[in-house]
Amino acid sequence: EKGSYDHYMLKEIHEQPVALRQTLHGRIDGDDVSLEDFPPGSFEGVDSVQFVACGTSYHAGMYGEWLLSKDGVEANTFIASEYAASPAPVDEDTLVIGVTQSGETADTLEALESARQRGARTLALTNVIGSTAARTCDDALFIRAGPEIGVAATKTFSSQVATLVLLAERLVRDLTGSPTDDHAARLDALESLPEHVEVVTNDTQAADVSQRCLGDNGHFFIGRGNAYSVALEGALKFKEITYGHAEGFAAGELKHGPLALVTPETPIFAVGTGHYQNRLESNVNEIQTRGAPVIAIAPRTASGLVDTADEFLPVPATHPDLVAILANVQLQLIAYHAANEMERSIDKPRNLAKSVTVE
Ligand code: M6R
After folding, report:
1. Is the pLDDT of residue 223 over 90?
2. Which position among 2, 70, 239, 354 bears the catalytic label?
3. Is the pTM of this model over 0.95?
4. ipTM exceeding 0.85?
5. What is the 153 CA–ligand 1 centroid distance (Å)?
6. Fewest CB atoms within 10 A around its CB: which of 75, 235, 293, 352?
7. Mind listing the pLDDT tens digit for each residue in 225-270?
8. CB neighbour burial string for 230-242, b if at least 16 within 10 angstroms, e if fewer
9. Other Cβ atoms within 10 Å of 35 Cβ, number
10. What is the DSSP letter of 88?
11. Cα 123 to averaged position of ligand 1 atoms, centre (Å)
12. Rounded Cα gap, residues 44 and 148, in angstroms
């Protein structure tokens, strides 16, 4: 039931603190993690990780790849439908993780099957107990976000990424013999993530900023590192429910082509996390020289970015590896308020289904 909310999407955006508490419940154990079926040593023998997924779940997979790579674990992310067309090499030491909220996405199931047939170990990272992915993979890890009704994935993205932070801790320890860099501080910050998300869902500034997004021009989203996956996700959410043109770019790629699209009419959302900050600021300067309004989404502590931007949507300062999760919530609110203003069919956008069970 939607209760007092006009749309399931808005309800589910606001449910994120509760969903994340469920995701994390009992899984942080001091400066280590405690993951049901995956005690220490569960992944011994694995030498690399591949994520296969579609849409929003693909963006969560990219975030997972970034988390693993920075701590020395070989990881790659594949669009599931492309994985079937050009399968990456695997062997029995490859762990292939299907990131799928529903556990029923045909392209993802096909990619997992292709990996399984070639001898890889498979793991379903899913929201649905008893789903096809959970039943057919060697292992399953549940994100525990609760049911998501809106076609636009919101709370499941946050819970997928939070689960990936936990899983990365186990994988990095098992594969490298050491904990993740800065693990104690990051797990501490993860414990506070639900309350930090709540600060964002209680912030009303996205509704005003979304007024900039009602025109027919393009809307661009940029970030680096883990914020790149969130830039892509912000653009996907925006196009999916507003029907407006939106694209996400790796901030450093702008000058290799997309900068030609930038005009005073194209709002640019810049996601700042604290990682790669100076470079992001240079990208913002390049954009402003072309007259485009820049909306920074970052903690106030990213003062260089915050001071330069034309508008600013704040997120709480936390561990830089987690800031992009918070920024993503602001982008969900931007997409929601713009779509609402345009009277779009927010919970059931045209041409889309919640679960895509055809290839
Ligand atoms: O159920 P899945 O996570 O496998 O779904 C994958 C995509 O179809 C899904 O994330 C889609 O991109 C979202 N509706 C976007 O909001």
Report:
1. yes
2. 354
3. yes
4. yes
5. 6
6. 352
7. 999 999 999 999 999 999 999 999 999 999 999 999 999 999 999 9
8. bbbbbbbbbbbbb
9. 18
10. P
11. 18
12. 34
Q: Is residue 100 within 6 Å of ligand 1 at its C-beta?
A: yes
Rounded Cα distance between 91 and 335, Å, is 41
Average pLDDT over every residue of 212-218: 88
Nearest atom in ligand 1 to the alpha carbon of residue 237 is 16
What's the gap in Å between 9 CA and the centre of ligand 1? Answer: 14
Q: What is the pLDDT of residues 139-195, one digit of tens each?
A: 999 999 999 999 999 999 999 999 999 999 999 999 999 999 999 999 999 999 999
The answer to whether 24 touches 162, Cβ cutoff 8 Å, is: yes
Return left, alpha or beta for 130; rule: phi > 0 is left, psi -120 to 50 is alpha, else beta.
left
Task: Determine if ligand 1 sits within 6 Å of the CB of residue 274.
Answer: no
Taking the CA atoms of 99, 60, 347 and 248 in sequence, report the sign of the dihedral they define: negative
Give strand ranges (E) for 9-104: 28-29, 32-33, 48-53, 75-79, 94-100
Atom 4 in ligand 1: residue holding the nearest Cα = 100
